[in-house]
Amino acid sequence: MYKLKGSPTTGLFGATLGFFIGFAAVALFGPTAHKFKTLMDLSPQQVGLLVAAPSLSGSLLRIPFSAWVDTTGGRKPFLVLLVLSILGMLGLTLVVYLLYPARLTASLYPLLLLLGVLCGAGIATFSVGIGQVSYWFPQARQGSALGTYAGAGNMAPGIFSFILPIALSSWGLAGSYLAWLVFLVAGTALYYLAGRNCWYFQLLDQGLSKDKARDMARNHGQEIFPAGTLKETLVISARVWRTWSLVLIYFTTFGGFIALTAWLPTYWQSFIGVSAVTAGLLTALYSILTSVIRIVGGAISDRLTGETTLILALLTMLVGGILMTVSSSYGLSVTAEILMALGMGVGNAAVFKLVPKEVPQAVGGAAGWVGGLGAFGGFAIPPLMGLFVIMQGNAGYAQGFVTFIALAVLSLGLAIVLKQTHARRLSKVPLEQAASKR
């Protein structure tokens, strides 16, 4: 007798919990890395690399670990990534407790860089969870499920941006790192208890053949199944041109989201002239709104289709980008920021509604490519915007949003092509069915 545990709802809860915990793992490192600058005599480039290290590893690791989901389910990849982030946080906690501030020297820079890379493993849980949730839910509910998963998980940075100043003032740097380590360990333990693979992978673990596991899981309602090994799922998804269209669109929406969370504090202070506290609140507003609206965007995608939702979202983002470019006033910039948050959040949800729809034979591999390479927008976009500041001075903080206008237009064109291509594929089905009857 084969035992099946969990349900789509519990599968969604476990994956969301794991992603929230993983994303929270890096919430402390970036804002506190600047404290090491003077003590270690670091250059601005070294500080920049130190702050970016978790995001870089978190993006790159998404590709292989997401593909791993197609061979073993999401549970093992999730736990490995969370344990790696625990090791990074443990190392940082020990460094701060034992060496900060008097014994922290430049010779320890490579160690801090390595520990930052390990902490970034928690970010890579995103794409793992996309695959894990996708296999649990039927196509008709993918948008809502994935929107809830990503929206709730993405709230971690915004929530912890409020908690961090309180923690640092109350517990100090060492106490804060210890608190984050305890939180990460406890969260990983909770995922160990709550995280569940879909029925297909549970049956494989109990010794069934792939064919029998597929048939039994299908009888329980599972619709999507993996195609092959880790390497095969990456290759299969890479051969589908729609994967790369979604990569570029996600580069715009999610990569743009990461880029703006780093860019907006400086924009608000240097260009609009608000205080550091107000700039932080406005940035937190953008971050949390983008995450929360992603949940709504998933439900909209189920109703309107992913392609239509994506087109509407990109149009909203485009309007926001245009307004940011021409704005020089506080009120108009707030309005523009909200429009960009709405467009990016809904767009992020729509992209991952389309991943299992456009590449159903290799969801994990496609999610890895899209989530991993798309996130690189967070590193590529800020330097491009910075060029406008170098060339135009203070006005460049607004003119740099031309970058988002260009990306939105390009992504909009790709979304329209995806919609037209899907319509043509649907129109061929009745013709093929009629031909088979003849």
Structural commentary:
- The protein has 438 residues and is mostly helical.
- The protein has two domains: 1-225, Growth Hormone, Chain: A, CATH 1.20.1250; 227-438, Growth Hormone, Chain: A (Up-down Bundle), CATH 1.20.1250.20.
- Helices cover 82% and strands 0% of the residues.
- It contains 21 helices and no strands.
- The protein has helices spanning 8-24, 29-33, 35-40, 44-60, 62-72, 75-99, 109-119, 125-136, 142-153, 155-194, 199-205, 210-219, 230-238, 241-272, 276-304, 306-326, 330-358, 363-374, 377-392, 396-399, 402-437.
- Helix 1 (8-24) runs parallel beside helix 9 (142-153) and helix 13 (230-238) crosses helix 18.
- The longest helix has 40 residues, at 155-194.
- The chain is globular.
- The termini are far apart.
- Mean pLDDT is 88; it is low at 434-438.
